[in-house]
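[09:14] KT: can someone run the structure on this one? pasting the chain below
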Amino acid sequence: MTTPPPPPSPPSPSSPSPSSPSPSWSSSPPLPPPPPPPRAQSLPHPLRTRELSQLTSSLYIGNAAAANNRYLLATNRITTVINISVEIINTFIEGIQYLKFPVSDSPGARIGDFFDAVADCIHAVGLRGGRTLVHCHAGISRSATVCMAFLMKHHSLSLLEAHTWTRACRPVIRPNNSFWEQLIVYEFKLFARNTVKMIDSPLGRIPDVYQKEYGLMLSL
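[09:31] RB: done, structure tokens below
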């Protein structure tokens, strides 16, 4: 008596036929964060909290609380802390390098004098496989300013692109107008062109990136 051949095996679920319909989803995935500028495509999906925000694979920006939070520094593998302030005293933690650039958040502060030194330090730490946290008091003005300078110098972003990306990662940033003027000078030094300019407004000289929102504020 001849044994009948075994029935054919069912197709593997992992190898659907070309005519198989694509799976359908019952709900849409969450919306992604704002897209990065063209030359920032290699930058990471941003980590964003009130204390700490990630700008690149090796650069974080935050406030004084983040700089003194041992758990936050450890979990994000921070190896260097750069303090852009005169008033904040860091808690020195073993295994972390600390640098301080004394800058006040005032119109007369010459933060531009430190752009190259801070940017080159962040870059060097990244090349060694480390991670840098740049902070001031609130992570809004001074730290944002030097981080934008770093993105211009070592990621070749324009000032407008650097601001767009930094603000997407940390929406609270707001460099003071004097710092904007120094960033504009720095952009021209790097690229011989400007993508942001200072303009007159009823509130004084402001960068043109704020023109629309200042107009909305004045219309209320």
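[09:33] KT: thanks! The CA atoms of residues 3 and 207 lie 86 Å apart.
[09:34] RB: yep, looked fine to me
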